[in-house]
């Protein structure tokens, strides 16, 4: 999955251009997929995280690959800037200040565990992104979240709360999937 410096610059440029395009046209930058290298045409799942002064300003993405990488980056950059329900849409004054981080995800793999303690032992800080699913609820933390929540127990507790579950929640039907991410910034 590793991308070259030029490919990373190109993906960051697509993300920034999509936000600029969105300020004018209220839609993501249209992408002509065939114009890009084959590697960038492959279906990949991405998250685009926007920060201003190291503070979260928007984060939107997909956990499953369903469209070409260049298209996913354009779509998610636009969505992070203008459709993250936690924030007001980015404005023309903020746009140049945005720090853009793109996480290109590996396909999620279902983890098997016998207890919360077993799960905690298997978790790999700073490497694993996790998807928690149970009772129709779902949440995820990208691997970068380990920087804010380095303790495994706390990481899992906050992941449960993000899904709307109590922090001490446990169930035999709880599912956890793990993925890794290549971060481009």
Question: Which terms summarize this structure?
Answer:
Glycoprotein, Type 4 Pilin, Dna Ligase, domain 1, 5 helices, alpha+beta, four-stranded antiparallel sheet, 185 residues
Summarize the structure.
The protein is an alpha+beta fold and 185 residues long.
Molecular structure report:
With 185 residues, the chain is an alpha+beta fold. It has two domains: 5-105, Glycoprotein, Type 4 Pilin (2-Layer Sandwich); 109-180, Hypothetical protein ph0010, domain 2 (Dna Ligase, domain 1). It has helices at 5-25, 38-41, 69-82, 116-122, 152-162; strands at residues 45-52, 55-61, 99-105, 109-110, 129-134, 137-141, 175-179, 181-184. A four-stranded antiparallel β-sheet has the order 2-1-3-8, covered by helices on one side. The radius of gyration is 17 Å and the shape is globular. The mean pLDDT is 97.
Mean pLDDT, all residues: 97
The CATH architecture classification of the largest domain is 2-Layer Sandwich
Number of strands: 8
- Give the SSE order as H and E letters: HHEEHEEHEEHEE
Rounded to an integer in angstroms, the radius of gyration calculated over CA atoms is 17 Å
Structural class: alpha+beta
Q: State the distance separating the first and last CA atoms.
A: 16 Å
CATH homolog superfamily of the largest domain: Hypothetical protein ph0010, domain 1
Helix/strand layout:
Elements (H helix, E strand, L loop, with lengths): L4 H21 L12 H4 L3 E8 L2 E7 L7 H14 L16 E7 L3 E2 L5 H7 L6 E6 L2 E5 L10 H11 L12 E5 L1 E4 L1
Helix pairs in contact: 1-3
